Structure formats: C-alpha cells, structure tokens
Amino acid sequence: MRLVRALVPSLALVAALSAADPAPSAAPLVVRVADGAKLVKDWDASIYAKVWADPAAEALRAAWTEALTGIQAEIGFDPVAALSAMRGMHIAFLGMQGEEPKIHLRVDLGTFAAPVLAQLRKDADKGQAKQIAGADEAVGDEKTTVARFGNVLVFALNCEPLPAAPAGEASAALALDLDAKRLVDLIAPAIPAEKKAEFDNFVKNAATYLGQWKYRGDLVPEGIRERLEANVPAPGTQPVDRTVLARLPANTLMAVAYGFDGKAYWKLGGEALLTQLDGAMHAGVPVGPEQTAQEIQGLLATMGVNASLQQIVEGLSGTSLLAITQSAPFPALTIALPRSAPLDQLLGVALAQIGGALPEEGQSAPIVIPGAPIPVPITLLRDAKHWVLSTDPMLSGTWPSGAPGGFADTPMAKTLYGKAPADAALLGASDTPAVLRTVQGLLGFVLASNDSLTPQQKQAINGALTKLAANASTGYVFTGNDAKGSRTEVRGLIGSGVVPIMVGAVVAGAVMSKRMNDQIFDGGQPAVEDAAVTPEVKAIDTLSAVLFQAQMQFKGANYVDQDGDGTGEYGTLAELTGLAALPGGNPADNLAAGLDLAAGYTYAVYLPDAAGAAISKDSEARVADKASADAQEAKFVIYGWPSEGAGAGRMFAVDQGGILFESPYTGAAPAWNALYNGQGWDGIPAWQPAQR
Predict the structure, then answer these.
(1) Domain annotation covers residue 322
(2) Mean pLDDT, the chain, integer
C-alpha cells in the first residue's frame, strides 16, 4: 500500500465521522495534531523508543529500515523526515453539502509539501490539475481538492481550500474539541426524510451528552496518556466503594470498578432504554415504551421473576467489579455485581436452567456450564452486598471473609489512588509488567506456529516484549464527576486500548488448540501417545506441553513468592514435579504429571540467581533475597537431551518466550546457558527453532 495515498483520505475519514461550520477555526469539531518536532521529542522520551533501541529489537529495526527504504524509493522522499518537518495539522468539519460532509484539512509540511503533492498527483486515479486562487498548484475533481500554498497543503472535500492558519495550536499530540449540540444541528438538515424520525429519536436519547467535549492524547514516558473532559456529568453514577477493590488479591493483573446509580440512571435514561428495546423487539413496528415494558414484565413473570425491568435496573445500585488475576493454567476472571432481590431471582432462574441452585449468604457453589469448550472451574459466591462469579480458586477462598486481599497495597493501586479523585465513579488499574509477562507466555505458542516470521524476528519480538515488561509502568483509568461536568483520564502502554487487548489475550490463551487443551486438562499427557513416536518427538511434546505449561501454572498460581510482592517465581524441576517442598515448607503439587523420565531423554530446569548465574536442583538452592526473587519472576530455561546410552540425536530447549529450540547433541549435558551461546540471561538464543 502506498503510504501517502492512504494518509490523507484516512485522516479525512476520521474527521468525516463527526462535524463543524463555515470557518475552520470556529468549527464544532476540530482535530489538531502537534508539530512533528514535539511528536519526535515525546517519542524519544517514551518507553517505546527505549524498547525499540534495545539490541533485542535489532531484527525488527532491520525489517523496518528495509521497508522504509522501499517506500522512500517509491515516493521519492523520506516519510519519517516529512513527519518530523510537519508544523501542526488541523482538521475541521464545516457542515453538510446535501448529504455529504464538508471537510477541511490543513498541514504545514515545510519543504516536503511539494514532493508530497507530486506523489498525490501521481497516485490520483481521477484527479487533474485545478486552478485555485493563491495556490502554487492544485489537483482534484469536482468534489475534492488538494492545493499547495507554499509549504502548506490543504485537503478540501466539498468546500474551498483556505490557506490561512487557524487560531490555536495543538495543546497535545492529538487534540479534539467537539461542540456536540452544534454538530447535531449542522447534520440535522441533511438527514433524509425516511431517516428523520430515527435521527430525532437518537438526538432525544443522547440529549444528556450534547455538550462540550475536549480530548487530549499525549505520548508520555510511561506510554500513552489520554484525557477527556466534558461539561456534562456521567449520568447514573456514584462514587466507587474502594473497599470492594481492596478485597482483590495482590496478584491482580488488572481490575476496573464502576459505581452505578440504578435509580438515577433509570430517571435519566429509562425511557431511552425502553425505546431501544422496543425497536429490537418489534422491528419495523414499534409499540411504544409503555407496552414494551409490560411485555418484558410478562416475560420475566413467566420465568419466575417477580420484578419489572425498572426494578432490575434500579436494583443494580452500588459498585460493580471486573478483575483478571494470576491463576493457573490461564489468568482468572472475576465479576462482582451488587445484590438486589430482582437480581437474586434472575440468577436463581438462570442456575435452575443448568441444574444448579443459589448458595446461601456467605457460601459458594460451583457452576458447571454444559458443553463448555474448556472445563474451567467457576465459582458463584454470595455475600451480603454482592454476587461474585470467579474462575480464581484462591480468590474464591478469600473473598467471603471480607478482609482486604492486598490489592490496595500494590504499586498500581497506589498510582491510581494518587491520580483519581476520592469520589471517582470509575476506577481501573493494570499491573502492566505482570500483564506483559503473562501475555509473553501465551505469545510463545502463537509465535512458534507462525510460519511468516523468521526465527530472528520471532526472537526479536520476544526480546522486545521482555524489555517492555522490564521497563513498563502500571496503568490506570478513572472518571470523576462534579457540578461542572466529568473528567476521565487513562494512562497505559496503548491508552484506552489496554482492556480489550488484555481480554483478547486471555480469550486467545483460553481457546488454544484442542491439542493443548487435552494436554492441560487430561492429566498433562502429551497429545501423541503412539508407540511408534520417536523419543525426539516425545521430548518436543514434553518440553512444550508439559514442562513449559507447568512453569506457567507454577508462576501464575504463586506457588513461590519469596519477596512477597504478589508476583510468583518460576519453579525448579523438583518443585514442578512435587518432589521438593516449597520454601517455607509449603506442600507442592505435581504440575508436570506427564513427564516420562524413561522415554530416552533427560531434563533440567534452570533459574537465575542474583549474580547472573543459575540454580537448578531444588528449593534448597534458592536464596530468599529480593534480587534472586525478581530474577526468578522473569526467566527460566529448560533443556532436554538424550539419556546416557541413547546415542546421537538432538537436544532441545525452551525458555520463558515459549519458542522451542534445537541443537545437535554433543554427547554431554548442555550448560545452563548453552541456548544463549554461553552468554547470560539477556542473551539471544543461538539454537535453531525445533522441527517436529
């Protein structure tokens, strides 16, 4: 894809999704992008630049340089240099022309303005030269114009290009100002008659939100920080009860709590909700909110629920919670909802459908979902104020006590509470380093099965993720309300995209291939059990499906946490197999039940020590100091090599990246750092990816 051809239409499309008036500087929707120099400066100070410059990312940088060289050869200039030379970008919606938007984009590209326009002229499918007053040159058609006024390029859709700089510079890397009421007023005349009723209904339902909105997004050293301010409050909210968050464990990966005021919400939006349900239930033939409410109440009554939709919504008042915690074999999900009589009835009906029953207050009950693709244990807990659904067995055991679980003492909680107002209606936090380490373990399987990446690129991605985890800061999100409106702030590696990315990673990990599922839930046995399978293939299965998975479970379940920071360490071979007591004398489980020591291969597990060397035998070799614990939270390497008398063959290795490597067997057991060609724990694997 040609970079420049895609750039301007994409920016125009973003602006076209919203709106403004005849003067770009006075538009109800204005998007500003900061000077290229600021963007470059912010990038250089960010964690992204630090990771990108790391030696582990050399292969990725080489691929990027090669791609950039090809783009430059095609378009005749360096697109990165053009970005650096940019002095602001301004996009505005200027109203409607019939049913089409009027968009105006202005950007000062310095000496790159002429070559960029030349490339646009070259790429244009229908464009031709146009005469624009004051412009040095212009190209376009009857609707679209791209004109150059010296160093300034102007893109105009259904309007005249204006060269003058609009008032006001970008106050952030990306700034957006929206007057929602004026936006709606400008769009309204262009709505077709057959859509007017639908549009008017939308405006009526959204009336609460038709105020002034300001978005500011910036690159900061920790990642991306976004701020959204509005002169309208978030309706139907109340302050989060932080004692609910406090009951989460210290090994929480990420959590978000929301204070919902059901009565206030119904007062403001109940009719709108019923109208939407009316449209969904009576497609094309709405019957009105009142009749829809009666129909819903009738349906609920047939289910055995003696409540109206209004009573259900109003009963959801209080703090709701969603959390992802470290657990084995996958991160665990916990959802808490404030109790009410209608919700009690609804849950009772739902459980009855799958043959279950509600637990008594202070008790819990297992939930079995018929036909579930993966048999993850689910527990339903009932306390005085909340219903809690969790796949975390440890949290399920501690929640009923009501005592703090350690979350409030974590760095992520302290950062969040230091930023958010005391009466915030939304509170969320992410232990980003731990999230990345968790994702890294799951990513190893994805990379191993990706044939489009070279081994060097796979290792570079894994190395970059390791560096990212080592340098990442915790993330947070909060929303506060006051008499003037609402304010939301998000900070994280990808800003407001953190939650869906993490959820996607957890889901992807949970729905791994059936082969992996069988290995985990059917006693950890390798998928291939045929007697004709060679010892080498069994060794591959053992390292990838048994020992690697055992490490993920061991760390995720916090079997060993020597420094008490809530993040577990990896285990030795004796600990993974349950043959050695854990530090402190705690009992160990056999997480590597599929390990077959009589199958022609010998195995060893190495963990780092505080001095950069390795330990291997059992928990007695551990030194319970902070430096050792931190190192053992991040690294391990496992080897498998032919047993004595087994003859020649291949030896294999896997580390925390999840990629299986191989090397010819030398006749002796590999040293702990053989995979890294004798280098330390930060070395790059020198062996080749294993072939089955």
Answers:
(1) no
(2) 81
Which residues, other chains included, contact 564 with Cβ-Cβ below 8 Å and sequence gap of 6+? none
SS3 for 136-179, per residue? Answer: CEEEECCCEEEEEECCEEEEEECCCCCCCCCCCCCCCCEEEEEE
- Residue with token string 């609804």: 346
- Is residue 308 within 8 A of residue 293, CB to CB? The reply is yes
Answer whether 299's CB lies under 8 Å from 279's CB: no
What pTM was estimated for this model as a whole? 0.69
* Six token digits for residue 469: 């985890």
| Enclosing domain of residue 202 | 3-35+86-207
In a domain, residue 500? The reply is: no
Q: Which of 154, 185, 207 is the last residue of a domain?
A: 207
User: 128 in a domain, yes or no?
Assistant: yes
pLDDT tens-digit readout, 41-62: 999 999 989 888 888 778 778 8
- The number of domains in the chain is 2
Residue 202 has pLDDT above 70, yes or no: yes
**Would you mind telling me the total number of residues written for the chain in this entry?**
692
Rounded Cα distance between 47 and 50, Å, is 5
Helix axes 289-303, 262-281, angle to 10 degrees: 100
Domain end, chosen from 207, 235, 263, is at 207
Q: Among 566, 567, 571, which residue's Cα sits nearest to residue 583?
A: 571
Token pair in block for residue 146: 């791209």
Give strand pairing partners of 178: 29, 213
CA 675, 681, 684, 685: dihedral to nearest 10 degrees?
20
Residues 6+ positions from 515 with CB-CB distance below 8 Å: 527, 545
